[in-house]
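Consider the tokenized backbone below.
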């Protein structure tokens, strides 16, 4: 067998005689294996970070303070580049004796657009305080 290997020259891969664990196998095709970790990473990428949400909340308070329906206010976290628009919805409604409004927040993270839904109420001081801000559920 050694003579055959010597005569084969470069056309025979010596390491092919030894088995490799899957982790060391070089992938040559375009089909990749998706794992649960990949799915979790994709889901996490679809939601802004707590810092990004702080910028969105501040923009929501500003948009609602303008007291205009349907006019969007842009927001952006300069550190991460994540940003979008806050759009107040519908007329004011009352919760626990406070005037409240719903809004939508768009954002783009790593080139992927997504939406958040939120609700804010006016405090006794007259400021708007965001009560909820979460991913918009479709369907």
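A designed sequence for it:
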């Amino acid at each position: 067998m050694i003579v055959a290997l010597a005569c084969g020259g470069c056309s025979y891969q010596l390491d092919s005689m030894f088995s490799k664990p899957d982790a060391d196998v070089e992938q040559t095709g375009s089909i990749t294996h998706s794992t649960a970790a990949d799915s979790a990473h994709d889901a996490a990428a679809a939601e802004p970070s707590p810092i990004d949400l702080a910028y969105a909340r501040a923009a929501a308070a500003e948009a609602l303070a303008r007291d205009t329906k349907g006019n969007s206010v842009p927001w952006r976290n300069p550190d991460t580049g994540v940003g979008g628009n806050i759009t107040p919805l519908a007329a004011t409604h009352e919760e626990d004796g406070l005037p409240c409004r719903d809004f939508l927040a768009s954002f783009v993270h790593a080139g992927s657009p997504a939406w958040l839904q939120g609700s804010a109420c006016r405090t006794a001081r007259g400021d708007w305080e965001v009560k909820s801000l979460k991913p918009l559920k479709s369907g």
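The beta strands are 73-76, 83-88, 93-95, 98-109, 112-122, 128-135.
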